TrEMBL record:
<dbReference type="InterPro" id="IPR016039">
    <property type="entry name" value="Thiolase-like"/>
</dbReference>
<protein>
    <submittedName>
        <fullName>Beta-ketoacyl synthase chain length factor</fullName>
    </submittedName>
</protein>
<dbReference type="InterPro" id="IPR014030">
    <property type="entry name" value="Ketoacyl_synth_N"/>
</dbReference>
<dbReference type="GO" id="GO:0016746">
    <property type="term" value="F:acyltransferase activity"/>
</dbReference>
<feature type="domain" description="Beta-ketoacyl synthase-like N-terminal">
    <location>
        <begin position="39"/>
        <end position="198"/>
    </location>
</feature>
<dbReference type="Pfam" id="PF13723">
    <property type="entry name" value="Ketoacyl-synt_2"/>
</dbReference>
C-alpha cells in the first residue's frame, strides 16, 4: 500500500435497516444470507449518564452505537481516539421540532432543544460518553459525506501516524421536510483506521481520486439503501471487505470525482 492516503481497518461498526451490526451486515454483503428489510432499531446509549441518555436523539443513538461497535471490534480505548464525524444533514427530528416551535404562537425554544440542534451534537455526546479528549472533526458534504469523511480520516492517519475513528451517520426528517429530503431511515458506518497493520486489522485500504461512476450493488434492495441514505455510500467498500476480495471499489464523491479505494484483505 504505497498510496499517500492509506490505512488499516481495525474495527467496523454498522447499523442500518435490516442490518443490526457488522457481523449481520458482513453475512449479507458476502452473500451468505439474504437481506431482509426491516426498520433500524436504535439501542439505548447505555454508555451515557442517565440525564444525557434521556435527551439523546435518534442521530446520537446511531452515532454512539456504530462508534462503540467499531471500537469494541478492535479492542481499542475510545477515550484515546481522534474522531471524524460525518453527516449529510444532521438531526432532522430536532430540526422539525424547532421549526414547529418557531411556527407556533409560543416561539420560546428549549435550551436543550437548541443545543441539540447543532451539527456537532453527536460528537459532543461521544465525548461525554467516552471521556475522549483527542482531536475531533465534524463535517458535512451532503450526499458525499461518507467520502469526505473518509478523506479527512485518512489524511489525519497519514499526518499524525495515529488511529482515527470515522463515524458516518444519517437519519430521516419527518414531513414536510421529508418530501424534499426523503432519507428513509437511520443508518451509519464506523471505521477505526490505523497507520500500521495489527492483529485486529480486517483489511487495508488506500485511496485516490478519479472520475467516473461509483460502484453499485447487485441486490436492488441494498442498492436502494446505498442511494437513499448518504452514509451507506460505504456499502460497496464494505461488500468487498466482507467478501475478502482484493481490488478497487469506486465510492461516490463530489462530482465529477469519485474515490477509488483499493482494498487489501
Amino acid at each position: 500500500m504505497s498510496a499517500k492516503l492509506a490505512a488499516w481497518i481495525d474495527g467496523i461498526g454498522v447499523l442500518a435497516p435490516g442490518l443490526a451490526d457488522w457481523p449481520s451486515a458482513r453475512a449479507v454483503l458476502a452473500g451468505e444470507t439474504t437481506y431482509v428489510a426491516a426498520p433500524t432499531v436504535l439501542p439505548a446509549p447505555a454508555i451515557l449518564p442517565p440525564a444525557e441518555r434521556r435527551r439523546a436523539s435518534r442521530l446520537v443513538k446511531l452515532a454512539l452505537a456504530i462508534g462503540i461497535e467499531a471500537v469494541s471490534h478492535a479492542g481499542a480505548d475510545a477515550a484515546t481516539l481522534a474522531t471524524v464525524f460525518s453527516s449529510s444533514c444532521g438531526d432532522g427530528h430536532n430540526c422539525h421540532a424547532l421549526c414547529e416551535q418557531l411556527a407556533s404562537d409560543d416561539r420560546a425554544v428549549s435550551p436543550t432543544r437548541f443545543h441539540n440542534s447543532v451539527h456537532n451534537t453527536a460528537a459532543g455526546y461521544w465525548g461525554i460518553a467516552t471521556g475522549a479528549m483527542a482531536p475531533c472533526q465534524v463535517l458535512c458534504a451532503y450526499d458525499w459525506s461518507f467520502g469526505a469523511g473518509l478523506v479527512e480520516a485518512l489524511a489525519q492517519v497519514a499526518t499524525t501516524r495515529a488511529p482515527v475513528l470515522l463515524i458516518a451517520y444519517d437519519a430521516e426528517y419527518p414531513e414536510p421536510i421529508h418530501a424534499m429530503r426523503p432519507t428513509r431511515d437511520a443508518a451509519g458506518v464506523a471505521l477505526l483506521l490505523s497507520p500500521a497493520r495489527s492483529d485486529s486489522s480486517v483489511a487495508g485500504l488506500s485511496l485516490r481520486p478519479d472520475d467516473g461512476p461509483a460502484d453499485t450493488l447487485a441486490d436492488p434492495a441494498l442498492e436502494t439503501l446505498r442511494t437513499n441514505i448518504p452514509a451507506l455510500r460505504a456499502l460497496p467498500l464494505l461488500a468487498r471487505i466482507a467478501r475478502g476480495a482484493a481490488g478497487e471499489t469506486g465510492i461516490d464523491y463530489l462530482a465529477p470525482l469519485r474515490l477509488v479505494v483499493e482494498v487489501l484483505p
